[in-house]
Design brief:
- The radius of gyration is 18 Å and the shape is globular.
- The strands form three sheets. It has a nine-stranded mixed sheet, sandwiched between helices. It has a two-stranded antiparallel ribbon with strand order 2-3.
- The protein has one domain: Alpha-Beta Complex (Spore Coat Polysaccharide Biosynthesis Protein SpsA, Chain A), CATH 3.90.550.10.
- By secondary structure, it is α/β, with parallel strands linked by helices.
- The chain contains ten helices and 13 strands.
- The relative contact order is 0.17.
Length: about 280
């Protein structure tokens, strides 16, 4: 059983300046919940209740969010507003939260390696909060856990994108071995369209085995001196240890303004239907 999930959350969120000048991008709300809360809810539904968060300067609001606010809760106790905190209280009651700091922004691979102190020698999930996913019928991470339990390999979530978008993503080179499941031979980080091995893009959901830490330590920095998780996974793919899952559901790139607005509209429409 996978118990731990890592949230890399040290990035600057420059695409949302000036909003993210003093507020972590992970705390930007879709309706009435911040992005990272959606991610933690997804992790818990997949059985991961030990949450590790890699933070940086200016991210204190994340730790405060996953904590009790005595004064606020006292003020709204017994009122209709008390129910608005039921979701976050459920997470606080059922999860543990641990934090470490990434002092330099050296890529996603470096952020994951920084989180080793929170993970130890266990298989773990990774969720990027600004990739907001709605799984069908169950969460994307739950779909990935089932595949891991079947194959005991690293799992990455993938989705089809248009060829004019492949330069924005890590893209896989793989062979479909069962419906929606690909055995990876390699992957390329942000290739030009004419150099992309496929149009299957890696999104912000991973299940990683603890060997990834040793691989990351021996992986050379790539573009801009950043340590890329795709380079480390490409090494593991050569050993036959990485599968890609074309998940069932929707993904919103909430690291972009367009994706953020799309997610807001989608969840608002869902809320109206429930009412």
């Amino acid at each position: 059983m996978i118990r731990k999930c890592l949230f890399p959350a040290a990035g600057y969120g420059t695409r949302f300046l000036p909003a993210t000048k003093a507020m972590p991008k992970e705390m930007m709300p879709i309706l009435d919940k911040p992005l990272i809360q959606y991610g933690v809810e997804e992790a818990l539904k997949a059985g991961m209740n030990q949450i590790g968060i890699v933070t940086g300067r200016g991210k204190r609001a994340i730790a405060d969010h996953f904590d009790i606010s005595y004064e606020l809760e006292h003020q709204i106790s017994g009122t209709a507003k008390e129910g608005k905190l039921s979701g976050i209280r459920h997470l606080i009651d059922h999860c543990t939260f641990s934090y470490t700091r990434q002092t330099e922004m050296k890529g996603l691979g470096h952020a994951i390696l920084t989180g080793e102190t929170l993970i130890g020698a266990e298989t773990f999930g990774v969720i990027l909060a600004d990739d907001l996913c709605v799984g069908e019928p169950d969460t994307v991470m739950s779909q990935m856990v089932r595949l891991y339990e079947k194959h005991q390999a690293c799992i990455i979530a993938i989705e089809e994108v248009t060829m004019d978008e492949v330069h924005k993503y890590g893209v896989i080179d793989g062979v479909e071995i069962e419906d929606g499941v690909y055995k990876l031979n390699g992957m390329v980080e942000k290739p030009a369209a004419d150099e992309a091995p496929s149009n299957l893009a890696i999104i912000g959901r991973y299940i990683l085995m603890p060997e990834i830490f040793d691989v990351l330590r021996t992986t050379a920095p790539g573009k801009n001196g950043e340590l890329q998780i795709t380079d480390a996974l490409a090494t593991m793919a050569k050993q036959g240890k990485v599968l890609g899952l074309k998940f069932r559901g929707k993904r919103f790139d909430c690291g972009s303004v367009n994706g953020f607005v799309e997610a807001t509209n989608y969840f608002f429409s869902q809320m109206e239907e429930e009412d």
